[in-house]
Inverse folding.
């Protein structure tokens, strides 16, 4: 019974053989060492889940500070789109992170803008990129306040200026060359 449960949970237990006593053993090693081989990845998985939970909880609190729903930190691709929105970029720019090598650069740009939106310097974005387990809880639980996403300035095109803003009398005009008509 125990062998079938272990086989279901961990496929490597197929090397285990059931001897006449119903004892789990293997021809190459004792039963205890094979069980240890199965438990080590489980311990690693539990530690990894703990680290991931700290990251998600920190991101959840950071999203709530920025006025976004906290549950968005759980959804894998959507959370990057919300980070882009928090940074003042278009949410679709967060999808650029999925491009293999260019995505690291885009993630850095988004993190720089997020750090500036929370009043941090651009160097904090490197911490966000390399150690998100530390950076996101610092933003979420720390004293950082969300200042808004208006830090990035968009260029105003000349054609966007309304004609009401410019007075016709104040505008300099080019002198037109006079034509000499032979009348």
């Amino acid at each position: 019974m125990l062998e079938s449960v272990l086989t279901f949970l961990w496929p490597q237990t197929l090397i285990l053989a059931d001897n006449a006593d119903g004892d789990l053993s293997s021809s190459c090693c004792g039963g205890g060492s094979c069980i240890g081989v199965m438990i080590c990845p489980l311990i690693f998985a539990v530690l990894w889940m703990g680290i991931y939970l700290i990251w998600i909880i920190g991101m959840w609190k950071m999203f709530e500070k920025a006025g976004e729903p906290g549950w968005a930190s759980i959804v894998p691709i959507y959370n990057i789109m919300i980070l882009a929105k928090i940074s003042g970029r278009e949410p679709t720019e967060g999808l650029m992170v999925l491009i293999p090598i260019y995505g690291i650069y885009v993630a850095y740009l988004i993190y720089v803008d997020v750090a500036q939106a929370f009043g941090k310097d651009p160097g904090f974005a490197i911490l966000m990129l390399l150690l998100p387990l530390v950076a996101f809880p610092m933003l979420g639980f720390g004293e950082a306040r969300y200042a808004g996403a208006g830090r990035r300035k968009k260029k105003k095109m000349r054609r966007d200026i309304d004609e009401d803003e410019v007075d016709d009398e104040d505008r300099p005009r080019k002198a037109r060359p006079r034509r000499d008509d032979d009348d």
About this structure: The first helix runs from residue 2 to 9. The chain has a mean pLDDT of 77. The longest strand covers residues 17-18.
